Structures are given as structure tokens and as C-alpha cells.
Amino acid sequence: MSVLPQTPQAPARHRLDVGAYYRMAEAGILAPFQRVELIDGEIFDMNPIGSPHAAVTRRLEQGFARAVADGLLLTSVRNPLRLDPFTEPQPDFVVLPPRADAFAASHPGPDDALLVVEVADSSLAYDRETKLPLYAKFGIVEVWIVDLAARVVEVYRDPAEGRYGSAARMSEGLLTPSRIPAISIDVAALFG
């Protein structure tokens, strides 16, 4: 009698929830200086932030500063956005509605995000292939991916069934977020 060979199986994967992720940080397993984010239960390293990346983020802050000062909006730079119990990315820039506690009681969720922006230099493939589908899956109404190398802003709107129904690329002109019609960002000026 012959023995059937065993089919090799991949090792089981264990998804972390947000609570376990934070306990790892509290226990020192994740060092405070580590730039990581939780995506579908897995911890991903985030790339270092170069000067052009930081400059675009600062220019975005300036573009929304008046509305923030007037109490019409909040902005969040590289802070968690809790999509579900297993997913908490840290987008480069998020525009949120005003809230008295500034989201001190809990991180904002997908329904809170009026606009999510990812600034991409070395992270372009990750932002497009991993994060963008997640944002669509959770109904983030609008996402901009700022492609530093190409000097364009990719604009994604109308999420449905894990995809965006509308996609455009802009290298110049004024870009107005769909949920924030009073604000327009000069695309060329983002790149300096």
C-alpha cells in the first residue's frame, strides 16, 4: 500500500485587531519611532518621508487652513483612520468635519472622512494597489493620490463595490473636493 504524499499547506496567518496592535505598541514591541500601519490585520512598515513629500503635505495644510481657522473643517496629518476592527491606515492627509472633541474619544472612521490624500513617492504602488481598494471598500467618498514623480494628482470618486467609479489625473488647474465645494487647490502649486 502506498501512502499519498501530503500537500504542503501555507502556515496559518493570524490577523491582529486594533486592540492587539495598540497593546503591542504599549508593550514596546512596536517602537514609538516606527512608522507602521495596520491593514487587514497585518502590520506594514511605512516608508520614510522625504522633503518633497513633506512639502506637498504642508501645502495641502495651507490650502485648507482658512476653513480650519474658521471652524468649518478639521485636518489630520498622518493620523489613524479606523476603517474596521482590523484596519487602521495612517493617510498622509485627511479632511474631516468639525467636531467639538476633535475626535479625542475615538479615531475618525470612513464616514467621517470628507477627503483622504496619499502623497506618493516610493509608496505609489502600495497606495494604488493596497490602500486605494481599501478606501473604496469602506466608502471613502474621495481619495487623491499625489504622484510626486509624475507631478500629477490622481482623483478618485464615487466608491462602489470596492472600486472607484470615477478616476482622473490632473497636472494643473484648480481641484475642488466634491464634499468641500468652497475650497479649491491649485494642483501645479502643490509641487512648488
TrEMBL record:
This is Uma2 family endonuclease. The lineage of its organism: Bacteria, Pseudomonadati, Pseudomonadota, Alphaproteobacteria, Hyphomicrobiales. One of its GO terms (molecular function) is endonuclease activity. Residues 25-169 form the Putative restriction endonuclease domain. Keywords: Endonuclease, Hydrolase, Nuclease. The keyword Ubl conjugation does not apply. InterPro entries: Nuclease_put_TT1808, Restrct_endonuc-II-like, Uma2.
